[in-house]
Each structure stands twice: as C-alpha cells, then as structure tokens.
Amino acid sequence: MLRIMKHISDIYQEISTPKKIVITMHQKPDGDAMGSTLGLYHFLLPFKHEIVVISPTNWASFLDWMPGCNEVLDYEKMSTKADAFIQAADWIFCLDFNTLSRTKNMESCLLNAPGKRILIDHHQQPQKDAFYCGISDTSKSSTAEMVYDFINAAGYNQNIDSNISQCLYAGVMTDTGSFRFPSTSASVHEMVSDLLKKGLQQSVVHENLFDNFTENRLRFIGNTLLNRMEVFYEYNTALIAITQQDLIKYDIKTGDTEGLVNYPLSIEGIKLAAIVIDRGEERKCSFRSKGNVDVNTFARKYFNGGGHFNAAGGFSKDPLEKVISDFKIAISENKDILSTYKF
Ligand code: 5GP
Ligand code: MN
C-alpha cells in the first residue's frame, strides 16, 4: 500500500513529550550526516527523551570531535543492542538519506520497526512511502540546514546552544564545499549569521575537520594526483582510480579519501570528476560535476547509485579494471553533453 508522507509539522506538538527516539543516517556518514543527526540529538535531549544515535557503519575519525559522537552506536559492531533500540522506538529520525537501502544492513530492521519513521533529507527521488512524515527538499544545501529549519519552525530557535551550533555548522559547511557550491543560498548565510550571533566559533570547527590528518594521507594524495589520475580532455572529464595496494601502503582509513574527487575539478575545463576506490568487497565510486552535467542520473544509470545533480556516488562488484573501462564507455556515451565546454 502506498502511503503519503505527511509534513513534518505533524510532530511539532509532540516534541516536548518524552519518548523513545532513534536517530540514524546513511552508511559511512559524512560531515552532514553526522552533523545533522548530532545537532538534532542535542536539540531533543533537554526534553527528557530516551535517545540513541545509530550509524549503519563506522565513520571517518575527522568526525570524532563532534559533541556526542562518542555515544553514537556503530550498527556493524552493536547490531543486537541497536536492533532492540530500533524496535522499541516511538520515533525513528532518518537523516541525510533518501532510501532505506542507504542504511545497508540496518534496512530490514528499520522496515520492520513499529515506530514512526521521520525523514529529513535533501537527496533526489526519496522513497516517500517508507516514511510516516518528514521533509524532502532537494533545494536545500544540507540536511543540517533542514534540521535548523525544523528547530525554528517548531518554535525553538532560542534553544540552539553551542553543541547544536557546532554540529549543524559542520554539516552545512561540509555539504556546501565550504560555502562555494550553488546550493549555498542566502538562507545558508542567514543560518550561519544566526549561529555566529549565538557564539559559534567557526574556525575551531574548520580546524577540527580539516587539520587533523596524518602525514601519510597527504603523501597518499600526492601519489594519487601524480600517478592515479587520468584526464580525458575530449570529454572534459578526469578519473582517479585507487587500488587496494595504495590504501594498504599509505595506511588509508575511512574518510581519508573524502574530498579527493574534487581535485580534478580545479583543472580548467574539467566538468566531470570521478574517483573509483577498490575497497575490497566492492569498488566505491564518487562523481562530482559542474554546470549542466547530471551525475545523479549518470550514477543511477551506470553505477547502481544516485545522489544530487552535481554530486553523486555508486558502487560496482566488478574488478577495478572493468570499472575503469565501463567508466570510459559511459563517458563516450555521454559525449554530447560532456564535450561541449559550457559553464
Ligand atoms: P559521496 O561521493 O560523497 O560518497 O556521495 C555524494 C552524494 O551521493 C551523497 O549525497 C551521497 O548520499 C550520494 N551517494 C553516494 N553513494 C551512493 C550510492 O551508492 N547510492 C546512492 N543512491 N547515493 C549515493
Ligand atoms: Mn547531505
């Protein structure tokens, strides 16, 4: 039976009534997934709810500084405990993902849970019939901005404290590429202005996120750009392919490759950048584009994925060499849109 997702205003009245709440996010959470869930967590805590934040998988260590991150359950390590929380929850907030399959091994437990699933997300083509209520808005910069809007719309702007501010700022800043992507609307700057007036120290957040890596990671990036990047000028495209041996040699951990896909876009004329990483169990792909190149459709069509118009991802079970050759075929099939230099 197809259910129509109600608007999130359906729950405003009940926010202050204590409940059992689970907040979850997509697998391998990024700054927005972790920032939006922890921002919501800190907002809900004072209302005396019983709240558990669950990540479907582990996450990058550059997120560990976020207030509350040390209490997040990793589903892959604590599935029995997490399943019990999910089954008992009155509300299950689902943040920064559009389909339940983005929660990997948690999907069936979420589907079978009796509680109300509530969506807050900005990805395209959400699985609306899987949610009791929520907001899906692809025009929004980040889920963190949507959590900020939710708090305001429910009438609680004055409750935004330092913990909430840091988490939401981290989410909006990372998802907008430090306020440079076209999604950086006036409302994003208005939100940041409000957070700054409330005492946010934004440079501390930037340092926590970007200045805590290992020397190995920087050398890995050097090697990657020198030896693992191929540029296809006739298609205004560049591809980075990373082997398992590279990951082992430089001791690369979850999150160390974050942002690497953006580097080729700094080459004049490049409007599609891709990275394929051999993670052993699968080849993980990320796509970034400029202007009129729709990588959401590209990732859906060729790499079992999806995402946003200018930022998407996918995966393949084929060997790395096959994924590289498939990518080359895919760009040649999209020659018309790629070869015309138009920004
Ligand atoms: P990233 O390349 O940073 O992993 O992801 C870019 C965007 O694409 C994110 O919004 C992410 O949620 C989405 N995305 C990444 N991988 C997948 C995937 O395998 N399937 C779908 N549907 N979306 C993905
Ligand atoms: Mn996001």
Number of strands: 13
Mean of all residue-level pLDDT scores: 96
Give me the side-by-side strand order of the main sheet.
1-7-6-5-2-3-4
> What fold name goes in the CATH topology slot of the largest domain?
inorganic pyrophosphatase (n-terminal core)
Helix content: 25-40%
Question: Can you summarize the main beta sheet?
Answer: 7 strands, parallel
Distance between the termini: 44 Å
Shape: globular
Give me the CATH architecture of the largest domain, please: Alpha-Beta Complex
What percent strand?
15-25%
> For the record, what is the CATH homologous superfamily label of the largest domain?
inorganic pyrophosphatase (n-terminal core)
Query: What is the domain total for the residues?
Result: 2
Structural classification? alpha/beta
CATH class group of the largest domain: Alpha Beta
Which small-molecule species are bound to the chains here?
guanosine-5'-monophosphate, manganese (II) ion
Radius of gyration: 20 Å
Question: How would you describe this protein?
Answer:
This protein is α/β, with parallel strands linked by helices and 343 residues long. It has 2 domains: 6-210, inorganic pyrophosphatase (n-terminal core); 215-338, Diaminopimelate Epimerase, Chain A, domain 1, CATH 3.10.310.30. Helix content is 36%, strand content 18%. The chain has helices spanning 31-44, 79-88, 107-112, 143-153, 162-175, 186-197, 202-210, 215-227, 244-249, 295-303, 320-333, 335-339, and strands at residues 6-7, 20-25, 50-55, 73-74, 91-95, 116-121, 133-136, 229-232, 237-242, 272-278, 283-289, 306-307, 311-316. The strands form 2 sheets. The chain has a 7-stranded parallel beta sheet, sandwiched between helices. The protein has a 6-stranded mixed beta sheet with strand order 8-9-10-11-13-12. α1 (31-44) packs parallel to α4, α1 runs antiparallel to α5 (162-175) and α4 packs across α5 (162-175). The radius of gyration is 20 Å and the shape is globular. It binds guanosine-5'-monophosphate and manganese (II) ion. Residues 26, 30, 123, 286, 305-308, 311-315 line the site of guanosine-5'-monophosphate.
